[in-house]
């Protein structure tokens, strides 16, 4: 992957992260834009963007996994659709490493968010745990956060590992 593709995706992720934090919604326009960009990149760089099933494993996987994560209220529908379309413009050789970075960044951000939530509402959470009110406990430790910044962190980690 060339450095300009890295910065193109980085710029898009910064913009999408800002929008996701600001209005908590990722437009389907990004799905269309990434699909058109993927088609363009396929014709410009057919070796990095082949037209085969291997290049669709992660995008299709994110639609399926994203639907499940949406059902259990871990990820928004827009986040999963955006992530699937983003994997269309990530070169094939970087899709696996990007998936790993997304897992790491999700775990770190999720754990930090959980620790802050526990520290903030410790007395209430302890009371729910003490009386075995699991529904109340889960409701109090659950926190929603914008997922696009997590994807941005993963992309920065991938770029740092690859070029810096």
Walkthrough of the structure:
The chain is 77% helix and 0% strand. The chain has helices at residues 3-23, 29-44, 57-71, 77-89, 92-120, 122-130, 134-141, 148-163. Helix 5 crosses helix 8 (148-163). It has 164 residues and is mostly helical. It has one domain (3-163). It has 8 helices and no strands. The model has no long low-confidence stretch (mean pLDDT 86).
Would you summarize the structure shown here?
By secondary structure, this protein is mainly α. 77% of the residues lie in helices and 0% in strands.
Descriptors:
164 residues, mainly alpha, 8 helices
Strand content: under 5%
Structural class: mainly alpha
**Count of individual domains:** 1
Succession of helices and strands: HHHHHHHH
- Low-confidence parts, pLDDT < 50 over ≥5 residues? none
Gyration radius over CA: 18 Å
Can you summarize the main beta sheet? none
Shape: elongated
Count of helical stretches = 8
Number of strands: 0
What's the pLDDT, averaged over the residues? Answer: 86
The helicity comes to over 70%
> Span between N and C termini?
14 Å
Any chance you could write out the topology, listing elements then pairs?
Blueprint lengths: L2 H21 L5 H16 L12 H15 L5 H13 L2 H29 L1 H9 L3 H8 L6 H16 L1
Helix pairs in contact: 1-8, 2-4, 3-4, 5-8, 6-7
